[in-house]
Amino acid sequence: MPLQGSKVAGKSASLVASSSSNRRRRRRVNRSMSSSMISTPTNSTTSTIQKIYDISRDVFAAATPGFVPPPSDVERLTGFLDSLTLQDIGLDATMSCFTENPQDHPKVTYVHFANSPTLSLCVFCFPQSAVIPLHDHPGMTVFSKILLGSMHIKSYDWVTASSSNQVTRMPNGARLAKLNTDAIFDATSKTVVLYPEDGGNLHCFNAMSPCAVLDVMGPPYCLEEGRDCSYFDSEAVHAGGDGQYAWLNKVPRTIEMNGFPMHLNIRM
């Protein structure tokens, strides 16, 4: 998930230095959060996040745009992520980032753990009814594990032109996409993996209950390298599409999030 094109505040200095410009355009993060919202990480929490980072670093060691990890590496990382709980990474369901009133247009909270030139590791915390709209992950592979609650995920992949002369672009710039996923996932679900060309590279999240999603992304969003996050509106294809196709049109959008850095001593 992740989501570059909006601005995120409340991050650590190292994150700001490496990627705040990447989020400059369409994600704004509010720094006015209580410093007590997340407790000081325990040794166990730090050890678990270090393990996630170590495995992810190996998996994404050669990550460049379009990189797809080999199946053995996908299995290694998903196997570890599948075993995690919310408490393993130092969060708790009673925290304020999960308990905002669903009627108050609640914001998502971005919790940063670590990032490098080849990967980014973070958690998105959703109060009930919070949404991250449809967005893309250009040239990226993303591992997403729900650690709390239930989430409706709808995802698409771009349709490429075929020999049948199928129209895949409209004069207004909209592109044809095929539905990949339209389902509810929860903390018992396996890790979802999306790839640069398939697996649901464009997706939107709608929290059915308070929800936490751990994301490992590689290579990370980088505006300067052409990996900005774009947001889209969708319009179903009604003629012969059987609900499986939609026109996706890029739209300007600013997503406001709360932000909080986990102050961890991660060995990079």
From TrEMBL:
Source organism phylogeny: Eukaryota, Viridiplantae, Streptophyta, Embryophyta, Tracheophyta
Biased composition (Low complexity): 12-21, 31-45
Reactions listed under catalytic activity: L-cysteine + O2 = 3-sulfino-L-alanine + H(+)
Top-tier EC class: oxidoreductase
Single GO BP term: detection of hypoxia
Family: Belongs to the cysteine dioxygenase family.
UniProt KW Oxidoreductase keyword: yes
Name of the protein described by the UniProt record: cysteine dioxygenase
GO molecular function terms listed in the Swiss-Prot or TrEMBL record: cysteine dioxygenase activity; metal ion binding
A UniProt-annotated Pfam family: PCO_ADO
Disordered: annotated segments: 1-45
Source organism of this protein record: Panicum hallii
UniProt xrefs under InterPro entries: PCO/ADO, RmlC-like_jellyroll, RmlC_Cupin_sf
SUPFAM superfamilies documented for this protein: RmlC-like cupins
Cofactor: Fe(2+)
UniProt keywords, alphabetically: Iron, Metal-binding, Oxidoreductase
